[in-house]
Amino acid sequence: MKSEGEWPLNSRIPLVSVVIPNWNGGALLAVCLETLSHQTFRDFEVCVVDNGSTDGSVAYLAQHFPCVRVIANAQNLGFAAAVNQGIRAGQSRYVAVLNNDTEVAPDWLAALVSTAERFPDAGMFASKMLFANDVQVINSTGVCVDRAGIVWDRRGGEIDDDREVAPVEIFGPCGGAALYRREMFGVIGLFDEDFFAYLEDVDLAWRACTAGWRCLYVPQACVLHRHSATGKEGSPFKSFHLGRNKVWLMVKNYPFRALWRYVPLLVFYDMMAVLFMLAVRGDVHTLRGRWAGWLQLRRMWRKRPYISPNDRKDVACLLPPVWPWRVLRRYQHLPAVAPEHST
Questions:
Q1: Pick among 3.30.1330.40, 3.90.550.10, 3.40.470.10, 3.30.230.70: CATH of 4-225
Q2: What are the tens digits of pLDDT across the range 305-316?
Q3: What's the DSSP call for residue 271?
């Protein structure tokens, strides 16, 4: 049990608010919060937003981590809404978003904050996420998007190279372990709560990129991740939301001037993804998700006012597409191979 003396106590507004969404993750929270309590950087607060857990998570936090701020929802409002609640509850300069199935290195926050202070034009900072069951293999160093509309974890499946030290500019961070500048939220808004869960981090990063905010990957900010410990890989719930949110992501964010030029490419690769899921895994939920996404096309299209028809950035932030048979290589390190972003 943690005593109050082991946690940073602030009589003023802390520099960082760490927001942890939780849904029936009581068994995971103990390790996550334990590692947070040993951070070398101390000017932070922790806010756990519980989404109607039935496993006693809230009572456990009250007993074992009394210094953690807890927001208890009566029902599961989703990852995006929970994170937004945590963001609104604080006033810190930076907001760190952390999955409950992570373990952070002692200098995780120190590395992120020092980089953020050095680069005021960057609004997002990505961690190095390693698989908890194989700490030599990278889970994610941020997210990538290509011109075919495919999203994947940057460097996923590669062997870790601990000689990396310099920050690298990337598309965006994985929301499982990221630092955001609060000022950026004031410009582009918070996570899109319609997404509920999955790809909301990519949507936020895309909006930020369009608005001129950079994202930096910080190699020294290390996190161990129990991949999909809450939303199981390949589950109907995850397949449906990934399928639906993929449609919404493209409708909301794909650069207007390039959209019509790349529509055939987007449709072709998305059809290939759906056919793969149906043929190889018998997964109809990804198709159901796409259909649900298209039914809300008009509402999502109306969320595009920040993208100008004369967008000068065009597709500069998107990587070139690869041949279809090479797409699967981006996901071979995951428990269930699926052509979707699935951190």
A1: 3.90.550.10
A2: 655 544 545 678
A3: H
